[in-house]
Design goal:
The chain is an alpha/beta fold. It is built from 14 helices and 17 strands. α11 links the parallel β14 and β15.
Length: 404
Amino acid sequence: MSVFATGINTCRLDLMNSLANITNVSLVAPSLFHRDGIGHAVLSTRLALKQIGLDAAIFCRRSDFDDSDIVIFDDTLSLLTNERYLNSDVIIFFVGISHKIFDAIWIGNGNALKIVRFHNITPSNIACEVPATLPGTTHLDYPHFIHGADVIWCDSEFNRRAVIDQGASAQVIPLPVRSIRRSPKRWSAERLIKIVYVGRLVKSKNLKDLLLAVEILATTGTFSVQLTIASSSRHADASILRMIKEQTHNATRAYRLRLKLDLSQSALDRLYRNSDIFATASLHEGFCIPVLEALSAGALPVTYSNSNLQYIGGGLSVLSHNDTPSALAAALQKASHMLLNRPADDHEPYLEVAAGTFSFVEFDAAAGAYLQNFTLNALGSQMIRSIDLNTSRRRPRHANSCSS
């Protein structure tokens, strides 16, 4: 074993030893649904904790999952009186909506370290209608209850700044993202650009602007365009679903729209790999996993430049200069031109993205390095250090610690 690997293992062991007094962790969220950002955060956090030997119970009001570690509770009182919750050493609240269960952040269980995992909250003026399956949910721009936490973890720099604006302190601990194996790109002799959107069909995702931008691209470009919208039918806005279905029947020689609902994971991965561009006109993102999944699969992200969309691509996205369909169409035109006119030498500086101009080789290397920030191991290491730092304030420090 190398000295470097030995050092990593020793550091991990020291960190695990520093958490010896922690035996019970509770994860609290209003809901736990398949292919949902909050659900992904809860499940990945539990997995990362298990990798370091900590078991975590999940508490939620609603769940799609059948798991013995998931505790369904009726109201805040039933949560606060649950024995597993009361015996917790650490409680992590996953905040992506304002909900009355988060009043428990002020109370905790009287002893545990209280952590808020803050995903940001869609502003009320662009939020979709509240699903009937989640009673007690409201949309507020920023929740007052974050001030009841001992520690705040944010998915992104955008979210951290939102918390700081509310007078609290926070640190960025990104979510892990699946690594999708790339396949070699073969640019079509028919000059076809394949664009994919992956995400929910709700008002804040602004599908109307995306559809208009791609339509502008198809009518002004010298190539054909195929847009595939991949989403879940669960909680989809009926009016948006109807709009997309109606437009799928209006295919032309230059533009084709496809709708793919409830794809399997393997089918979704194939869709990413077979796409040239990932595009979104979302009005608000606290994180945006699909941008990272697209980078992992080899698709070039082209997005609006609001909220966390300006940060999540790590400078490797093509950003619209403003949040209008015409500006997004111009960004899509630029990205399409670069991909269709790829130079013979992949070392030639050519790709113009937010961070500058890259060769295709440099771009792939930069994307690979950037995505290492979003692994399960990275999440686990950052959580351990944060929990250790904050629990150590409640007990004497261990003499043996891990140097950075």
